[in-house]
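Researcher: Let's do a round of design. I'm pasting the structure tokens now; please hold your answer until I've finished.
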């Protein structure tokens, strides 16, 4: 597909200043124009550009939203929470794996799968002032989180024996979009065809004061905040990325977070299982290791699939086990999802306006009398946000795929040296997995066997396959990089 065709789909018609003013006036927010006369022509143009992106007709009025959320909370209190037992399967079940792998591989061969990484965050908690996907966790190769994802997709194409590429959609944010795109291009997209990389920005939403009026943080600038990871859905549509998927013939989308260093993008087992269940939506989970682990779990609320926060589950429920001793409410959510394009387009998007949450925050605002920006010390306004899993109750056929934590979940969230979810703990998991793959392929580990600097390139193996020629009956000195 040509760049010109892609550009035509992504471009949105520009609104005139008069159209922008009419839009805001129709929603009772005309006060945002009170300082327009003080702006220079360039400032005015930038202000109208920002305002033109805000679709107030798609945001419920705050009073209406408050009523909706209150009603939801009241209804939730009386609803039954139960484990989700239908369409649940385990990646350790060899017979299931044998059945679903061909389905996933066929979808890859036919070019029907797209991968999407949620990469709008910075590595601030890591002490890294750049997009988190650019972070190097300290493996011998020095590969970043972004590079590992791309190389796994390239390896998957080889395994599928297809000339069809698996496009990667990268959801950035206004704070890291340019740097992310530059990073990929400066590194020749790590071997992926540039036309198979689509970058689009997570949306932002205006902030409101306690009187439900939009806050100005400068005479010509509205205070905004990211719309949450649930912003993926309107952003897919608004950016033209959803249209791009349809033009490519993509029917299924695998969505995952950037901070999981062991993620398997476009995982043929997960995708294949969802296809075997004719699922419209799917969730990959890791079973909780203990009853008090603070993670949301996939469950059912009045029969509808959802993610239940750990604070919503009673101690008795969290400790409940089945006859095998496995936690009943243990399907830990790891932000790893499957969707059909049809489900996104025809079910999620038409119902998205009802899925906003409110957060009371300290929001800097412009004081016209003082002619300066004020940073409040108490909550003075409201931010709207959305959660990616809030659409689960809309699903009619959700599938749950349970995977081993040590095989597929190594989050990188906390600073180096932290006891959990750090670059160090992720590197240990990756290193241990690489060593286990070598041993399963018939290799013998020698040297510093406890090393956390062992790795197998994603270009060499996606999930442990194809290593026999390299290691069988051979001594592999640790640390190693294959």
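Researcher: That's everything. Go ahead.
Model: Designed sequence:
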């Amino acid at each position: 597909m040509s760049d010109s065709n892609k550009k035509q789909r992504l471009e949105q018609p520009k609104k005139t200043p008069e159209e922008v003013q009419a839009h805001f006036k129709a929603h009772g927010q005309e006060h945002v124009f009170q300082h327009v006369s003080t702006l220079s022509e360039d400032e005015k143009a930038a202000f109208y550009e920002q305002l033109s992106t805000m679709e107030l007709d798609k945001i419920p009025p705050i009073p209406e939203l408050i009523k909706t959320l209150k009603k939801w909370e009241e209804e939730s209190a009386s609803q039954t929470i139960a484990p989700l037992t239908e369409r649940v399967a385990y990646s350790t079940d060899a017979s299931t794996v044998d059945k679903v792998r061909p389905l996933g591989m066929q979808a890859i061969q036919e070019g029907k799968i797209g991968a999407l990484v949620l990469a709008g965050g910075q590595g601030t908690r890591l002490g890294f002032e750049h997009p988190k996907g650019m972070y190097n966790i300290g493996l011998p190769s020095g590969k970043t989180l972004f590079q590992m994802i791309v190389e796994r997709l390239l390896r998957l194409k080889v395994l599928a024996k297809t000339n069809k590429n698996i496009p990667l959609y990268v959801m950035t944010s206004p704070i890291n979009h340019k740097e992310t795109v530059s990073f990929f291009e400066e590194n020749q997209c790590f071997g992926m065809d540039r036309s198979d990389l689509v970058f689009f920005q997570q949306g932002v939403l205006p902030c409101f004061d306690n009187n439900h009026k939009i806050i100005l943080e400068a005479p010509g600038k509205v205070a905004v905040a990211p719309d949450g990871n649930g912003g993926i859905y309107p952003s897919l549509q608004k950016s033209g990325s959803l249209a791009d998927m349809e033009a490519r013939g993509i029917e299924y989308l695998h969505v995952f977070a950037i901070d999981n260093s062991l993620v398997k993008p476009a995982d043929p087992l997960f995708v294949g299982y969802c296809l075997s269940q004719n699922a419209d939506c799917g969730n990959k989970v890791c079973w909780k290791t203990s009853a008090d682990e603070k993670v949301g779990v996939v469950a059912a609320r009045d029969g509808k699939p959802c993610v239940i926060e750990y604070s919503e589950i009673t101690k008795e429920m969290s400790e409940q086990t089945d006859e095998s001793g496995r936690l009943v409410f243990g399907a830990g959510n790891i932000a790893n999802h499957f969707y059909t394009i049809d489900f996104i387009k025809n079910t999620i998007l038409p119902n998205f306006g009802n899925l906003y949450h409110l957060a009371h925050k300290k929001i800097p605002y412009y004081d016209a009398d003082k002619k300066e920006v004020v940073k409040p010390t108490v909550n003075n306004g409201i931010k709207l946000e959305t959660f990616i899993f809030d659409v689960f109750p809309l699903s009619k056929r959700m599938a749950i795929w349970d995977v081993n934590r040590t095989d597929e979940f190594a989050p990188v969230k906390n600073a180096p040296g932290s006891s959990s979810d750090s670059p160090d703990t992720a590197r240990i998991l990756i290193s241990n997995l690489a060593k286990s793959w070598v041993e399963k392929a018939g290799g013998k580990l020698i040297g510093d066997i406890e090393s956390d600097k062992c790795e197998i390139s994603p270009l060499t193996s996606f999930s442990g396959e194809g290593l026999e020629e390299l290691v069988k009956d051979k001594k592999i000195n640790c640390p190693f990089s294959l």
